[in-house]
Amino acid sequence: MIPASYAQRQMWLLDQLEGPTALYNIPLVLRMSGRLDVVALRAALDDVLVRHESLRTRFPQLAGEPYQEILPPDEASVDLTLVPTPADELESAIARASLDVFDLAAEIPLRATLLTPVSGQPPVDRDSLVTGECVLVLVVHHIAADGWSVAPLWRDLSEAYAARCAGREPGWEPLPVQYADYSLWQQELLGEAHDPDSVRAGQLAYWRQALAGAPEELALPVDRPRPATADHDGGLVRLDLPAELHAELAELAARQDVTMFMVWQAAVAVLLSKLGAGEDIPIGSPVAGRTEQELEDLVGFFVNTLVVRTDLSGAPTFAEVLGRVRQAALGALDHQDLPFERLVEELAPVRSVG
To answer: Containing domain of residue 151, as a range?
Structure first.
């Protein structure tokens, strides 16, 4: 029995807490035109399933703990659903397909819907060829993928589709490892919690010191009270960055020996402080979590969260703030092996469903 990784376990717990929800779906949308070979696409989707074990993994539980049940390739298949859709209803159809709910214990975490045209030139054969404007909607549950996974998923699907259209299997090199290997490696790397010489103990000690006395919540002037239960409603604010300003920021980063990420991290910290959040600004930042080259081509849930704490006391200049952010960010990256979920459990801050 292969245990769920720390990130998978946390996602599973959230799924248990939230109940049936599409909150952690990752929708991937590809618009296509011309002649689409549906048979080849179905075969290519199954090729991707064979290549990436994470996409054919279910999460049953034993004694209240989830584990990875990896289905054999001949027992897992993507059900590509064809939905004839008028052009003026594409956006709503994409939204509906993206909101399908997964049963993590019983289903593989990947679905595929092909929105096909209903007007104009008729399809040659709906079971084999579709012509015109089509939209492929892939929905992956976050327990099986992250943002980095999008590139290898599309790349492998494209290569497999091209191969199947040519009447052959994809000729890619086998992956050196699978996600289950990473899960076991992660447990071995971190070591036992009671071992003072383990990686887990050393990194936990760092984070205890780095976050000692940090505020558990930033006090910001908001336009409404926080609800008793999170409703997950959000908004989108567009920020356009002129090329000239971007060039100046890049020059600033080079002069201060920081990355562009550190510049923006510092800017956000200063902004929050000016809005009333105080002088101690901890900001959670996602990192890819793929610290080994062998993990780069895998579809899986590797992302981790690091807390970058910025000290704005003493009226520092922005250059001084950049120096503080650089030190905090590099320290965080040096101690990124400890999963954020484990850190939260160890530090036990006050938590709320709001």
So the answer is: 2-174
